[in-house]
Amino acid sequence: MYDIRPLIPLLLTAGILIGGNGLQGTFISLRALEEGFSPSVIGMIGTGYFIGFVIGCIYVTKIMRSIGHIRTFSALAAIASAASIMMVMVIDPVSWFAMRLIQGICFAGLFAVVESWLNARVTNSTRARTLSIYRFVDLGSVTAAQYLIPVFGLSGFDLFAIISMALTLSLVPISFADRTSPAPPQDVKFDIKVLWSVSPLATVGCIIVGLTNSSFRSLGPIYADGIGMSVTGIATFMSIGIFAGIVLQYPLGHYSDKLDRRVVMLIATFGALAACIFLAFFAGESELFNFIGIFAFGAFAMPLYSLCSAHANDHAAPGQHALVSAGTLFFWSVGAVIGPLFASFLIDAFGPHALFTYMIVVLAFFMGYTFFRITAREGVPTEQRRMRFRNLLRTSTYFTKLAAPPSERDD
């Protein structure tokens, strides 16, 4: 019998964190627009978060090993909560960049603590069901959080306070978790040369996903506002793009396990490219057409990270999977740092539809590069692959371990 009760505090904490983070990404972009910040400045602020995320991924394990899980979580939650309040007290682009950088460090650490703790608590027999519940918590909390924006509005203190309250309240369930703190996790090693040597295509693919998907998350609200959507419409637009990400994850993953995985990556890239062409040149200001377009974009673009990770692991030697997982997250973060900043300058210069025109160029390049790699290297036969497709969140390297088959968990 599967007993979920011991994991409820950790899952509740994860839901509060993921929801607060999802709310923050949309709200801060829209509030910055209301404060008169230009799209390029908003892109810079979004870049600050991803720079912080990279730093947090690299150093959080050292902190956990020094002071333990619960103290690490408490310290980072307190700092992130204070940064949220500081943003409404000092409304200035430089200050907001600094606060988002701090929040990026903190959220990378907070997710690492929760997922490391979950890894220590689940068993092989309960892992798959726990993972399914975790994904449901992720999808539900992010989608629901978007609708707090039209309820409370963009102006004033309310949403900053709600984000701060969420970070503070996330301490409550985790404080009621099993009093036996997990053993300190092993250091996560980042060797950026390993992923390139294992799979140049996966390396480029992770950067491409960062360039495009992070631009949608950071600047999608700016695009939707720029074409005249209401606040409720913007929340719906973002929710549809996020929710759509799960629709084709498993069909694409299933066929990637049976076929040359690069062909499925090509199909997903083409689908995302077609959706961007529709949004850039045909959707116009129609809410319905934009909802259809962003659904198609999310459905095809969001699985690309998991496909790239699976392709990299197809080529990884025994003992390399942990380095490959850290590398995919690192290179995604590199793209996520550059993407929103570059796309925001284009929006400043050419208007909101430039967001998807930029993505057309990036995705078209990746299609060409994927064709080149298919001709340059033989695919790994299905019977020689050491792992199947996994649906991955880009929250921490420990999520990859949570989703991994038993043979890879000790790499």
Q: Identify the quaternary structure here.
A: single chain
The chain-level mean pLDDT equals 87
Question: What is the count of helical runs?
Answer: 18
- Determine the structural class based on helices, strands and strand pairing: mainly alpha
Considering DSSP H and I runs of 4 or more, what fraction of the residues is helical? over 70%
Beta strand %: under 5%
Radius of gyration: 20 Å
Q: Roughly how many Å apart are the termini?
A: 29 Å
Low-pLDDT runs of 5+ residues are none
Characterize the main sheet.
Answer: none
Number of strands: 0
Describe the global form.
globular
Q: SSE order, as H and E?
A: HHHHHHHHHHHHHHHHHH
Walk me through what this model shows.
This protein is 76% helix and 0% strand. It has 411 residues and is mainly alpha-helical. The protein contains 18 helices and no strands. It is globular, with a radius of gyration of 20 Å.
Q: What labels describe this entry?
A:
0% strand, single chain, mainly alpha, globular, 411 residues
Helix-strand blueprint:
Blueprint: H1 8-34, H2 39-67, H3 69-89, H4 93-121, H5 127-146, H6 148-152, H7 158-169, H8 171-175, H9 192-198, H10 200-226, H11 231-244, H12 249-258, H13 261-281, H14 287-301, H15 304-315, H16 321-350, H17 354-376, H18 397-403
Helix pairs in contact: 1-4, 1-5, 1-7, 1-10, 2-3, 2-4, 2-10, 2-16, 3-4, 3-7, 4-18, 5-11, 9-10, 9-16, 10-11, 10-15, 10-16, 10-17, 11-14, 12-13, 13-14, 13-15, 13-17, 15-16
